[in-house]
Design goal:
- Strand 1, helix 10 and strand 2 form a beta-alpha-beta unit.
- The C terminus is likely disordered.
- This protein is about 30% helix and about 20% strand.
- It has 24 helices and 24 strands.
- It has about 600 residues and is α/β, with parallel strands linked by helices.
- The strands form seven sheets. It has a five-stranded parallel beta sheet, covered by helices on one side. The chain has a five-stranded parallel beta sheet with strand order 6-14-7-8-9. Strands 10, 11, 12 and 13 form a four-stranded antiparallel beta sheet that branches.
- The longest helix has 18 residues.
Length: about 600
Amino acid sequence: MQPTNVADPAYFHKVVDCQWACPAHTPVPEYIRLIAQGRYDDAYMVNWESNVFPGVLGRTCDRPCEPACRRGRVEEKNAEKPEPVAICRLKRVAADFKSEDIRARIPRPLARNGKRVACVGAGPASLTVARDLASQGYAVTVFDGEKKAGGFMRTQVPRFRLPEEVIDEECGYILNLGVEFRSGRYVESMNALLKEDFDAVFVGCGAPRGRNLELPGRDEAAADIHIGIDWLASVSFGHVTSVKKRVIVLGGGNTAMDCCRSARRLGADSVKVVVRSGFDEMKASPWEKEDAMHEGIPIINFHVPKAFVHDAGRLVGMRFEIVHAVYDDKGRRSLKPSGEPEVEIACDEVLIAVGQENSFPWIERDSGINFDEWGMPTIDAQTFQSSLPTVFFGGDAAFGPKNIITAVAHGHEAAVSIDRLLHGESATRRPPPHLNLMSQKMGIHEWSYDNAISNELRFKVPWAKAEKALASIKVEVELGFDLATAFKEAERCLNCDVQTVFTDKLCIECDACVDICPMDCISFTGNGDEADLRGRLNAPALHADQALYVSGALKTQRVMVKDEDVCLHCGLCAERCPTGAWDMQKFLLLTTKAGDACRDTTMGAVRGESIA
């Protein structure tokens, strides 16, 4: 194998599993260390720069970072069920304990540059675009049919998960950058919008239409059957304040979990979730399913809805076919009838949460924007640019329903594209991210960070008492960590961004690092191809998704090979090394954002280079 190029930002970025997995590439270990130091304002601003909505996401994020967390891999022998660091809930700590001075930390926007950008929809993707561009001097106008900004964060996430004041606060930080918010204004024509003298348009209107189920009895019992996302919006705005006694929720995603938990709080005696798939194949996040079951809501799987049962138009139940999963020789799953009799489950009301669809009736097909056979706009996956160069899409409107953090990531990338386009540069060029590596050495055996490995298991976030939480749709269930518990949870972080950096010219091949490594992840051996090397290390490197760190040839012509997958970043190798060949260096990835640093004409000046 060739020596690893540690100057490539992607190499060490991938070692920071949580940051790599985050669509917005939030520097997770950085803000967790700041929380451990009691620097909550600094931790909040690290998040605000990357993910824009720390308080919202600290409660509602889908947490792609947590399944990737190294802690869950290396802790297998310490716990029956290894669990990652509570990254999401630590983000909330930064939001909950920031000071009133945080408003002064929000950077003031640059002077207006004469360019105007319209954002359709006031959800997370549009608001991210608005924040990134307004900060750079653009005049940004956000259109939304509702009175307040927030999009599906406000309309579809129940208040017991996300209090309205948190949405108001974090949307306010963006609107206060000089963004014009035209509330109560549905955009009914793209052609008309394009005539309003905007230099670019960003469409972030979400996937506003819930899928229906056209089954026997649907029309007759329509009064008692509701589309989940529409029903959640009605609950959010106070139009729905009660439900009937027996409720069935159809669907296995997070929307279904919000529906069933909301129905429980609105007075239902019996709430059941019924899904076609198996429990493990449900799209809902594991913790969302756990929360629903914790509140006494059963999840019935492998039941395919066949009909709505009614009595003269009054819904009395649903009929289901029982199926089971069958897998072919390629592991593909299909659902086959079990042969058991159909079952009927009694109910008075049904909430359908089986998926969402995009709907663009307001975009004329002669506008210059091309659509595919499924009615989705044809979008460049890198630039988010449509076939009409000045129109961009992001969030659920671009590639279908995802989540808040993905919408934020789309917004960042679209803002870069718009910024470059409106400065006469190609939207397809993407300046690479930059990296900083800074030694954490303070003494022979002292580091500028706490590198002790905590043996604590994951701490649980406290909940409000059940009788209080289930009595109101507006009582927040999770109370968040107190500061003492937050500190202990933060100490579980392995500081994966503090990298083990090896200088082969300093190595004397004494094998001291091999002897002291608690994970046996360092080997000195003859070179070979990757498959060969992986099989003859001190501890075989089995996870091919994580790269091997390979040095140049040493004096004996051996190479140092380190398995990045299970390294604890404990620093023992660097402490033990007599020549300083190992060093612990903090890695910081600077992703490309809208502004001078993303443009060809100013990139060099930003880096301190001559652009003459």
